[in-house]
Design goal:
The complex is a heterodimer of chains A (102) and B (387). With 102 residues, chain A is of the alpha+beta class. Chain A has one domain (2-100): Beta-grasp domain (Ubiquitin-like (UB roll)). Chain A has helices at 23-29, 57-60, 65-72, and strands spanning 2-7, 13-18, 49-52, 81-83, 96-100. The longest helix of chain A has 8 residues, at 65-72. Chain A is globular. Chain B is built from 14 helices and twelve strands. Chain B has helices spanning 11-16, 35-43, 79-91, 97-115, 122-139, 145-151, 166-185, 191-196, 207-220, 223-238, 240-248, 253-264, 295-298, 333-350, and strands spanning 19-22, 29-32, 48-49, 120-121, 199-200, 203-204, 270-274, 278-280, 283-285, 290-293, 351-366, 369-384. Chain B has a five-stranded mixed beta sheet. A three-stranded antiparallel beta sheet of chain B has the order 4-12-11. Classes of the chains: A alpha+beta (102), B alpha+beta (387). Chain A: Its cofactor is [2Fe-2S] cluster.
Chain lengths: 102, 387
């Protein structure tokens, strides 16, 4: 099990627990505002953009090339940006804090 | 085994120079063919605008048959964002469980209907009906309206040839005008009434603006949905193993929908008007000329997609641009994705196999590119799943 904390654009803090699947799916299933996951997790829509807390980057890893290409055109993107459909839930990411971009 | 194959006519040009050229009613178009260029250009709304003369960014151009500006489609940021924000919650309704239940009921009914038939012409007797009925949910209008839309046939803007048909377009515009008048006198909970009651910068939307949104909704989701539905069925007919896989692994259905949208790319391209002299792919693009974002070509770019000419049902990373890209990405995508997902689920649940009798391909003539987008007709038999 991994505990994942989302901070929405309204500064609301939502902590969820998950065991498998993607972080995007966990957020969508629990109605986290600002995570739409329109494409279901195949990296084509960029509606699951989060900023990983800098100290948690080691746990999540940085964005893949395809993600970087998607995010390159987003004015709001920075070095901590990830598309959370590409972050798998495992014990390794327990405790991460993600700031929802939208 | 090749009726459901959709060749990529752009490969040579995409790889050798990155663009293609087509003439269109004396307003030529430079077609951008590479994934990266298509996305960058779609994002750069200042140099490549949508808010040109109404109809000009559409290829073939609709300038001579339409004056109404489609909204938010033919508006650039920042005003685009205000309109988009107004309509977006309405277009996200397909995510609601009750919407999906109604859609599933419609699709189940139509599948059960065709299972009784010895031969079904899928474009007219399945896809057009399904699309029209589903549109009553998106518009929140009475189901009976779908009969009128079905009676218009598959070509709302075109007669049987490729030429634009102003008279046919007028049928749609007159219909929408009448519906807006009706809703303004007797508001209901339908889309016309909701839009008429919407606030834009401190005032209500005008009837012309409401018409602009409605024309977009009717036009953008007709041929595209009909082709996606028909092509998906043709593919499953020729790939029984894929139908079987959807039965055994229903969890991949969402990925399969995305992959089909990539592979079929129901909308070939969308234009932009260049606002300043610039270059695309080292090719000069002059102010007041047109470029197009060729989604269909970008979606077969081997630099991005492994085995681009195959349907890989569970393709995990699939940054396709079948619903466009950036500010103007498809407003109806949520509705379209639900239609496709529920369609695949229902077919997997009820259909054992299909048989294709004959078909007539729909080939788009893009000057020296000829692209298969779907079928004019395809006659099939749907066989029930026996458990």
């Amino acid at each position: 099990m991994a505990k994942i904390t989302f901070i929405t654009s309204d500064e609301e803090t939502i902590t969820l627990e998950g065991a498998s699947g993607s972080v995007m799916a966990l957020a969508v299933d629990n109605g986290v505002p600002g995570i739409d996951g329109d494409c279901g997790g195949v990296c084509s829509c960029a509606t699951c953009h989060v900023h990983v807390a800098p100290e948690d980057m080691e746990k999540t890893g940085s964005a893949s090339e395809i993600e970087t290409d998607m995010l390159e055109l987003d004015d709001n993107a920075d070095e901590y940006s990830r598309l959370c459909c590409q972050i798998d839930i495992t014990d390794a990411i327990d405790g991460v804090v993600l700031k929802v971009a939208k | 085994m090749n009726k459901s194959e959709f060749p990529d006519p752009f490969e040579n040009e995409r790889e050798s120079k990155g663009y293609g050229e087509m003439d269109d009613q004396n307003d030529p178009v430079t077609m951008l063919l590479r994934h990266k260029d298509v996305r960058k250009t779609a994002h750069n709304y200042k140099t490549f605008q949508s808010g040109a003369v109404p109809g000009r960014i559409v290829v073939p151009s609709e300038v001579s048959i339409r004056e109404t500006r489609q909204i938010p489609f033919e508006v650039d940021p920042p005003v685009h964002g205000i309109y988009r924000g107004l309509v977006e919650p309405w277009f996200k309704r397909p995510l609601q469980p009750e919407y999906q239940e109604k859609l599933a009921e419609q699709i189940t009914n139509i599948v059960e209907e065709v299972l009784q038939e010895d031969s079904v012409e899928v474009v007219t007797d399945f896809a057009l009906k399904l699309q029209s009925r589903a549109l009553t949910l998106l518009l929140n209008t009475p189901f009976s309206e779908s009969e009128t839309w079905i009676s218009w046939g598959t070509h709302v803007f075109r007669s049987e040839g490729e030429a634009l048909d102003g008279d046919k377009a007028n049928i749609l515009y007159d219909y929408i005008d009448a519906e807006i008048e009706r809703a303004s006198k007797n508001p209901t909970g339908d889309m016309y009434s909701i839009l008429l009651d919407s606030e834009f910068e401190g005032r209500k939307l005008t009837k012309e603006e409401v018409k602009g949104v409605m024309v977009l909704t009717f036009a953008g989701g007709r041929d595209t949905v009909i082709n996606a539905v028909t092509n998906a069925i043709a593919y499953l007919a020729e790939h029984p193993e894929s139908l079987e896989r959807l039965r055994k692994e229903p969890e991949i259905t969402g990925k399969t929908v995305e992959e089909m949208i990539r592979y079929f790319s129901p909308l070939t391209q969308m234009g932009r008007v260049v606002t300043e002299d610039t270059f695309v792919c080292e090719h000069a693009a002059k102010a007041d000329t047109r470029v197009s974002l060729c989604w269909a070509s970008a979606n077969r770019d081997a630099k991005v997609f492994e085995n681009p000419n195959e349907i890989v049902m569970d393709r995990r990373i699939n940054p396709h641009v079948g619903f466009g890209f950036s500010h103007h990405n498809c407003l109806g995508a949520t509705h379209a994705r639900q239609i496709m997902k529920i369609l695949l689920q229902t077919l997997a649940e009820k259909v054992g196999s299909f048989k294709i009798f004959d078909c007539k391909e729909n080939i788009e003539d893009l000057h020296h590119f000829k692209r298969k987008v779907g079928f004019h007709s395809i006659n099939m038999k749907f066989n029930p799943l026996t458990k």
